[in-house]
Amino acid sequence: MTEPTPVLSVRGLSVRFLMPGGRRVAAVTDVHFDVAPGECLALIGESGCGKSVLASALLGLLPANAQSAGEARLGDLDLISADERTLSRKVRGRLIGLVPQSPAAHLTPVRTIRSQTEETVAALAGIRGRAAVRDAARAAAERAAFPAGHLDRHPHELSGGLAQRAATALALVGDAPLLLADEPTTGLDRDLVDRTVDELRRHVDTADGTGRGLLMITHDLAAAERIADRVAVMYAGRIVELADAASFFGSPGPRHPYGRGLLRALPDRAFTPIPGLPPELGALPEGCAFAPRCDRATDACAALPPVTGGVACHHPVPGSDVRAAEDVHA
Amino acid sequence: MTCDAPAAQSAVWRSYGIRRRSTRTVRVRVSAALVALTVLAVLLVPPLAQLDQQAVDLAAKLQPPSRSHPFGTDDLGRDLLLRCVYGLRVSLLVGLVAALVAAVVGTAVGAAAGALGGWVDRAVMRVVDTLSSVPHLLLGIFVVALFRPGVVPVAVSVASTHWLSTARIVRAEVLSLRSRPFIDAAVSGGASRRRIAVRHLLPAVAPQAALAAVLMVPHAMWHESALSFLGLGLPTHMASLGNLVQGARSSLLAGHWWPTLFPGLFIIVPTLAIAGLAGAWRERISPRRRSELML
Amino acid sequence: MLELRAVTAGYDPKAPVVRNASLAVAPGEAVGLLGPSGCGKSTLARVAALLHRPDSGTLLLDGTPVRRWRHRAPREQRTAVGVVFQQPRLSADPRLRLTDLIAEPLRATGRREEAPGRVAELAAAVGLTPDLLGRRPHEVSDGQLQRACLARALVLRPRWLVCDEMTAMLDASTTAALVAVVEEYRAATGAGLLAVGHDHTLLRRWCDRTAHWEDVTGGTP
């Protein structure tokens, strides 16, 4: 398999927060991953595991008390060391399109969808002239399957699904090579989740084959299963497993005990929770952060597990262990 | 792909927004220093002063700032620095008393209107609207005119016009809190109406009300100065900042700038300092700050 | 029996969000109410928890019709229904530590002395550590806060539980953990449950039976 040049290439990315009293919170630690063109990588994990911080770091939207290390290459540009001017003029909208968590809150409440789309088209696509802008805005809305008849509505007059499409339309205007979707399905119904996710998928699989990359951050495993090519499981600020989506959700299943635990908790599977709570990011244990909740933990877990074959675990479930795979579906 | 490179243990940490932080710190420190200076001056200068602020020295009238009189003297030869400090003392006293009264009355009325709702709310808020539609100064003048000039009538006048805004802020806050699920949860947990008001609503509006009160102190000082400037506030022999500016008007036309400038600065500088501190406080209590660690 | 009969409710009498909804939960039964978002099922849940006065229709609690609502309702009726909301951030008083949050209903009903024991017992059941109990809501994650909110709903040992999209904001593991806590409580006390949500898979797995919004409202939009 020939690897195309990745759209986004994250190497050793860490983010920490300096809290009052000199406390340090390691929100993201030593994260490595790639997103290839035409690929969807789903970043999954519990709330508070550092997913959103990772997204903010990529967009350069970290608060003042944050520090970051490592790099995230998007083409020739390192997003982590880029200055605010570069980020606002070249990156946001143009290189990364953001599909927000709550689209209704993301859109300006006092302006119509048309005026917001036109403004975005004029700013990002550089289209001049009233008629041209108007046409381009209509085309942009059409691309995200937003009905032209609803363009003159205000955000509060739209249903959740339409607001999501409007926000997606804005994210697509700049023709960014990378789409970043931060919990795009929170609070939506199952049917609407499926539709939203399918539409996002459609924007990744463009006909001309160049393809965008999509990084979707979510805690909704069903949505991730529906859309993702690959899955990155995040736990306590680290990516503990990076796997092919088909093998992660299907057979042989996740290899990291945490990923297995997450799937076992689904109501259509075993519906049993992982015991215990995730650790505090401000007081992480020395070794494997999952060890206290892990039924496979041994003395070896007192040391930080190295990443081997995409899994950071001392005793991963063997990839071909059929018995364990059945256990997941029990 | 080279994912297997070990983590750079000596990671280079980059920070964000250092500059923004430091200007905020500077702003807060300068404001705090000025407020402290104001309080110290008001408390310490009168007992320590060698000169009598009322001491008239016609031989030294309208002298520009010099070593013996850093702020110069007024048209009766009184030391302006001392007069200003005494004026600030009176103005600050009026401001504090008025702000306290206004905050307590405004919070009580606003919280009652918001919590009880229905016709009580409508009636109270119509009264507030009606009173707000009268210009503050006019209403203030009307109240002062009912009494003999003095500190108490001025404080009452200022308070009677300023509780309205606090009442509105508190009512709006209570209304938005009342529909929150946490109030529903308290109701469902068997809490009485009184307990909900005292344990859940009042503590939630207290920071807003206190902030409104602090911001009202400079406002009340200005109001007092305006009343005194119009000759309706404090008796003219009493040094208040408004009286000082008023008295200096004629000398300004003669080219003597100091009797106007220094009392003016005494009105403006503490105002800005208090507003600066209150602004920093508002940033602290605003919910935006709570999401600083976006997890 | 927790019975809603022909309930019409909303915020504007001219355009009610709930029209003519009827639903009954037997003691010990778990009923899931499924409906799309924005259909008014949360409003119906609030009616069932005595938190919203319906425009018309009746709520029968163990055979007694409810005549007064919110804080005007008799305390025994109000506290017979425990309620958990969708967003833990909004349903927790931001100034209370988690211990006080859980103990608040006991204090409000004059059973202060029971608080330490009951809080410790519930904290263990929902999986909150003593360290977390000493924190305020902004210092814990959504999942941890929802655990505390569930403990608060159970602290008065209600005969009925209303869970309004309790797990919509939570990850799979926390969802499974909270559902397990509810089921343990119901097994021990025989309490009835009305779980409102939009996740078919979850509610079918969780509840004895599920009802669709269209069926509950008799097909009227």
From TrEMBL, chain A:
Keyword Nucleotide-binding in record: yes
Record-level GO cellular component terms: plasma membrane
Record's keyword terms, sorted: ATP-binding, Cell membrane, Ion transport, Membrane, Nickel, Nickel transport, Nucleotide-binding, Translocase, Transport
EC number: 7.2.2.11
GO process annotations (BP): peptide transport
Catalytically driven reaction(s): Ni(2+)(out) + ATP + H2O = Ni(2+)(in) + ADP + phosphate + H(+)
Lineage start: Bacteria, Bacillati, Actinomycetota, Actinomycetes, Kitasatosporales
MF term (GO), any: ABC-type nickel transporter activity
Name used for this protein in its record: Nickel import system ATP-binding protein NikD
Signal peptide (residue range): none
Cell compartments where the protein resides: Cell membrane
The organism of origin for this protein: Streptomyces ruber
From TrEMBL, chain B:
PROSITE patterns, alphabetized: ABC_TM1
PANTHER family linked to this entry: ABC TRANSPORTER, OLIGOPEPTIDE TRANSPORT SYSTEM PERMEASE PROTEIN APPC
Protein name (Swiss-Prot/TrEMBL): ABC transporter permease
Keyword entries, A-Z: Cell membrane, Membrane, Transmembrane, Transmembrane helix, Transport
Domain of life, per lineage: Bacteria
Family designation: Belongs to the binding-protein-dependent transport system permease family.
GO cellular component entries: plasma membrane
ABC transmembrane type-1 domain mapped to chain residues: 88-278
UniProt membrane topology term: Multi-pass membrane protein
GO BP terms, alphabetized: transmembrane transport
Principal subcellular localisation of the protein: membrane
Record localization: Cell membrane
Keyword match Cell membrane: yes
Organism this protein belongs to: Streptomyces ruber
UniProtKB/TrEMBL annotation, chain C:
Keyword Transport: yes
GO biological process annotation, one example: transmembrane transport
Keyword Cell inner membrane: no
Alphabetically ordered keywords of this record: ATP-binding, Nucleotide-binding, Transport
ABC transporter domain residues: 2-220
Xref: SMART domains: AAA
Protein name: ABC transporter ATP-binding protein
